[in-house]
Amino acid sequence: MSTHFPIAALAQHPTPFYYYDMELLRRTLALVKEETARYGFEEHYAVKANANPVILKTIAAAGFGADCVSGGEIEAAMEAGFPASRIVYAGVGKSDWEIRLALKCGIACFNVESEAEMQVISEIAGELHTTAPVALRVNPNVDAHTHAKITTGLSENKFGINLSMLEHALQTARQLPGIRLKGLHFHIGSQITELEVFRTLAVKVNALTADLRSRGYAFETLNFGGGLGIDYQHPDTGCIPDFKGYFALFNELIDRTDHPGIHFELGRAIVAQCGSLISKVLYVKEGEVKKFAILDAGMTDLLRPAMYDAFHAIENISSTRPRETYDVVGPVCESSDVFGKDRQVAGAARGDLMAIRSAGAYGEAMASTYNCRPMPKAVFSDSI
């Protein structure tokens, strides 16, 4: 039986639901703020990781900016208390209404991903008689050593502008009316657990900015995106990522000639470990070879295992029985509705509560109503 969860209190709530450890979230936020303040860095929370209003309000209250990838996220961020002056807006497919919204709100910066997008931003800025601050998102061709579906910094990815095309994009940014070139933006992928990958990025960025500086370009900001990974295998001992090492590495390596503002857009590293999906065992099914623990949560509640083959630690938080091996699965009519195969957990029985750990990022945010299933609710440690 787990000591990490208030089991009696959680048992009062209908499953499945997300449970958020708000004390862990606040400790994580405090450490990020401490480390970024040490070096004069600026942090923007990546709203796509988790847009629950309570989570957003907590992060905004801690003094973070916001990294948004849709008009809806901009609206949610502002509703939660993030100032428009600290909102950056990324995404390869910004629609006209979203661009208008961002311009009217007065956001800090558009992270522009193509010249075609920049042309449209210029036209809409002209219609609104305003100027759009932009940073060009550059693909530095750095291998993030992560899952193919969450790597973004390689050449010919749908994201960003390839290095070979950057000079032309910079010239376009200088020439277009209504565009103010503010900086460069880099984001090479997600769930990066090797700090050496970020070292490679920093070295490449230094070489790039030195070359551009020699040709008359100066930048107010350099934005290194996010991507710092978490320890999915050990959610208790690895509950807070190595923010100290991460920010210290950039401080050590980045050439700050011309004193650009250094920005980061962390999401998963901030919220993943504070969230768990709590589900009830519906049935234990005995096969000829396997045992199946069939839960009332499914891929509609947590898509990552089905979409990315992602690993999440699974605990039977109700049981002190000896450990047994199960395929832990959901009720959705898809063969991919599997949370984990051949997992050893405390012996399961109907009605036991299972916790699927490290689910605070891309869990609730990616939930759906497929199979006409209801969206999962949220329960917070502060309110039970």
Description:
The chain is of the alpha/beta class and 384 residues long. It has 2 domains: 7-17 and 273-383, Lyase, Ornithine Decarboxylase, Chain A, domain 1 (Beta Barrel), CATH 2.40.37; 22-272, Alanine racemase (TIM Barrel), CATH 3.20.20. The chain is 30% helix and 23% strand. Strand 3, helix 4 and strand 4 (87-89) form a beta-alpha-beta unit. The longest helix has 20 residues, at 195-214.
Précis, in short:
With 384 residues, the chain is of the alpha/beta class.
Q: Could you give the topology of this structure?
A:
Blueprint: H1 7-10, E1 17-20, H2 22-39, E2 42-46, H3 53-61, E3 65-68, H4 71-80, E4 87-89, H5 96-105, E5 109-112, H6 115-127, E6 132-139, E7 161-162, H7 163-175, E8 179-185, H8 195-214, E9 221-223, H9 243-253, E10 261-264, H10 268-271, E11 275-286, E12 291-295, H11 304-308, E13 314-316, E14 323-329, E15 338-346, E16 353-356, E17 377-380
Parallel strand pairs: 1-17, 2-3, 2-10, 3-4, 4-5, 5-6, 6-7, 6-8, 8-9, 9-10, 12-14
Antiparallel strand pairs: 1-11, 11-12, 11-16, 13-16, 14-15
Helix pairs in contact: 2-9, 3-4, 5-6, 8-9
Overall mean pLDDT: 95
Helix content: 25-40%
Strand content: 15-25%
Coarse shape:
elongated
| Oligomeric grouping of the chains | single chain
Structural class: alpha/beta
* SSE run: HEHEHEHEHEHEEHEHEHEHEEHEEEEE
Q: Please identify the top-level CATH class of the largest domain.
A: Alpha Beta
Total number of helical segments?
A: 11
